[in-house]
From TrEMBL:
<dbReference type="Pfam" id="PF08545">
    <property type="entry name" value="ACP_syn_III"/>
</dbReference>
<keyword id="KW-0511">Multifunctional enzyme</keyword>
<dbReference type="InterPro" id="IPR013751">
    <property type="entry name" value="ACP_syn_III_N"/>
</dbReference>
<dbReference type="GO" id="GO:0044550">
    <property type="term" value="P:secondary metabolite biosynthetic process"/>
</dbReference>
<keyword id="KW-0012">Acyltransferase</keyword>
<dbReference type="GO" id="GO:0033818">
    <property type="term" value="F:beta-ketoacyl-acyl-carrier-protein synthase III activity"/>
</dbReference>
<feature type="active site">
    <location>
        <position position="260"/>
    </location>
</feature>
<comment type="similarity">
    <text>Belongs to the thiolase-like superfamily. FabH family.</text>
</comment>
<feature type="domain" description="Beta-ketoacyl-[acyl-carrier-protein] synthase III N-terminal">
    <location>
        <begin position="112"/>
        <end position="192"/>
    </location>
</feature>
<dbReference type="InterPro" id="IPR004655">
    <property type="entry name" value="FabH"/>
</dbReference>
<comment type="function">
    <text>Catalyzes the condensation reaction of fatty acid synthesis by the addition to an acyl acceptor of two carbons from malonyl-ACP. Catalyzes the first condensation reaction which initiates fatty acid synthesis and may therefore play a role in governing the total rate of fatty acid production. Possesses both acetoacetyl-ACP synthase and acetyl transacylase activities. Its substrate specificity determines the biosynthesis of branched-chain and/or straight-chain of fatty acids.</text>
</comment>
<comment type="subunit">
    <text>Homodimer.</text>
</comment>
<dbReference type="InterPro" id="IPR013747">
    <property type="entry name" value="ACP_syn_III_C"/>
</dbReference>
<keyword id="KW-0275">Fatty acid biosynthesis</keyword>
<dbReference type="InterPro" id="IPR016039">
    <property type="entry name" value="Thiolase-like"/>
</dbReference>
<dbReference type="GO" id="GO:0005737">
    <property type="term" value="C:cytoplasm"/>
</dbReference>
<dbReference type="Pfam" id="PF08541">
    <property type="entry name" value="ACP_syn_III_C"/>
</dbReference>
Length: 341
């Protein structure tokens, strides 16, 4: 799938921002009420700590904070459209993006949510790029934001130790396909036949229309870890190869690989299959956990701010999430000032 655009209608990265809640939750904190330990969590996930939003803080709140940083990073406070990738919207309806746009002063901008769980940001890249290519927007604010702790069962060791809260955002502007920051072709895919591997069973029309009351655990997030691992490694690898082929890149051309921060073992397995050395794989999962749709833009913001991403670096992005959904894309990192809090 093309990123779209020719002439001056190609999506180009112009700004990036990342926001994390201030509350740090360590593995030892979780071990105080779960049958687990710091060693167990690190050995299986690579996570040492994560951030939790304070009570009363919503996904929209985090999205506004990250979006404001991305707009500041871009040097302009305006955007024609706001796309919010999230699996944890403030309400079942309406979408959260219009409220985020209003709070950022983007009155009248097109605004909508994208629901592809952990692959949401990559789906959002394709969507935002399409708005620019079609001439619908000249500048798009794309945000990945999650308060995943609001849907995770705090008593479920298999998920409670992995997922966390945070937000990251980018600004895409209309530009040329040959300039730094230009988004490469995006590969996307899905497999609805395996939707039950990652899901929240209750609360939707399927459960409500059945006439049956939801069970006590049905409003919580469920994940079949072993099966998800296998699908994630296979799909991330194949999608990454497709995105590289569409861009005309070889694996040796990649300076930095930015995978969705699902699990350190998944990232390592995909890098190994692709033939990427560990020093080219960016990660922040040890400090922030799995922030779902927020993980890639948050990692881009942090790596841009601390120097792990430098102008001219050729970057491969890839994500896998519920649906099942997956996607990958490429870009050459531009000379921008990344902002994080």
């Amino acid at each position: 799938m093309s990123a779209g655009g020719s002439g001056d209608r190609h999506p180009v990265l112009a700004g990036v921002g990342g926001w994390l809640p201030s509350r740090v939750v360590t593995n030892d904190d979780l071990a105080a009420h779960l049958d687990t330990s710091d060693a167990w969590i690190r050995s299986r996930t690579g996570i040492g700590s994560r951030r939790f939003a304070e009570p009363g803080v919503s996904t929209g709140d985090l999205a506004v904070a990250a979006g404001a940083l991305a707009l500041k990073s871009s040097g302009e406070a305006q955007a024609d459209a706001v796309v919010l990738a999230t699996a944890t919207p403030d309400h079942p309806l309406p979408g959260t993006a219009p409220q985020v746009a209003e709070r950022l002063g983007l009155i009248g901008a097109a605004a909508f949510d994208v629901a592809a769980v952990c692959a949401g940001f990559v789906y959002g890249l394709a969507t935002a790029g399409g708005l620019i290519a079609a001439g619908t927007a000249r500048r798009v604010l794309l945000i990945g934001a999650e308060t995943f702790t609001s849907i995770v069962n705090p008593r479920d060791r298999s998920t409670a130790v992995i997922f966390a809260d945070g937000a990251g955002a980018v600004v895409l502007r209309a530009g040329r396909p040959d300039e730094p920051g230009a988004l490469g072709p995006t590969d996307l895919g899905s497999d609805g036949g395996n939707h039950e591997l990652i899901m929240v069973p209750g609360g939707g029309s399927r459960q409500r229309s059945s006439g049956a009351d939801p069970g006590p655990e049905d409003h919580f997030f469920h994940m079949a870890g072993r099966d998800v691992y296998r699908h994630a490694v296979e799909r991330l690898t194949s999608s990454s190869r497709a995105a590289l082929a569409h861009a005309g890149w070889q694996v040796t051309d990649v300076d930095r690989f930015v995978p969705h921060q699902a699990n350190a073992k998944i990232s390592a397995a995909v890098a190994d299959r692709l033939g990427l050395d560990a020093d080219r794989v960016l990660s922040n999962i040890a400090e922030v956990g799995n922030t779902s749709a927020a993980s890639i833009p948050l990692l881009l913001a942090q790596a841009g701010a601390d120097g792990r991403l430098q102008p001219g670096h050729r970057v491969l992005l890839a994500a896998f999430g519920g649906g099942l959904t997956w996607g990958a894309s490429t870009l050459v990192w531009p000379d921008i000032t990344a902002l994080t809090v």
